[in-house]
Amino acid sequence: MLGLWLLGCWAVLGAAFAGQEGELSGAQESEFSDQDPARLTLSCTCGIPGCGIPAIPPKLSGLPRVIGGEDAVPGSWPWMVSLRIPGDIHSCAGVLISEEWVLTAAHCMLEPVEKVVVGLFNLNDNGKNVQVLTIAQVFVHPNASVIPVHDDIALLKLATPARFTDTVSAVCLVCDEADFPPGTLCVITGWGHRQHNTENSPTLQQAVLPLVSTPDCQKYWGANITDDMICAGGNGTGPCMNDSGGPLVCEKGGVWTQVGIVSWGSRECDASIPAVFTRITAHLPWVKQTLEEN
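Structure tokens predicted for chymotrypsin (294 residues):
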């Protein structure tokens, strides 16, 4: 049996579906140091000017084992956000899509998020790059549901805008998935558990994983996979508890674009099974409407 993890809540999905393990392919090591803004035209992205281009380039390796992750270069994922519940406890991740807005998973709102922290590498860091911001409004997708999972997306409007720096900036959102077909190697980042039944990672982790087609993902999860979801992983890397709400990002032409939001997966954080993400393109109309009206 496979279980469903959503934040800290558990639910049974039903019978598991057999399938083949995903495999990492392509270069085993790459450095995305070509950050030429002129190459933005190579892919279709939605976002503020200059989005998706870190001032500090990430360094990645094709990893066999975030689960199976490695420490990120501090500041290289400048859109990462830590959501904090009472007690200053990290409960979920999110991403900056502008100075005023954070994108995350709807199920992360099951607990009262008091504030967000940006510019962070170590969860316990209170250094000069860190900004602690309060939330003015929370917008959960009107059709969001935990059981069964669907429309797992929420927006947080900040009371005070984030100050963009070399370690704080926005990600782009995908508007054409043709840019990133199944098999594309993408990246997840987070401070969640490194293994099942462990604690949060104090430092930001990153892991490389391939996008998985809907039919292949349904071999594991059956009809639980719907059109508003996208799958990735099954290659020995994947998200785990408290990575929820974080980004699945893909790079093209030096620009990082978010294609998914960490939503749910194997109860045991089994990295041989694809994880499931909220599909960005399925929810762009709602995101745009929410931003325009608020």
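The longest strand covers residues 131-140.
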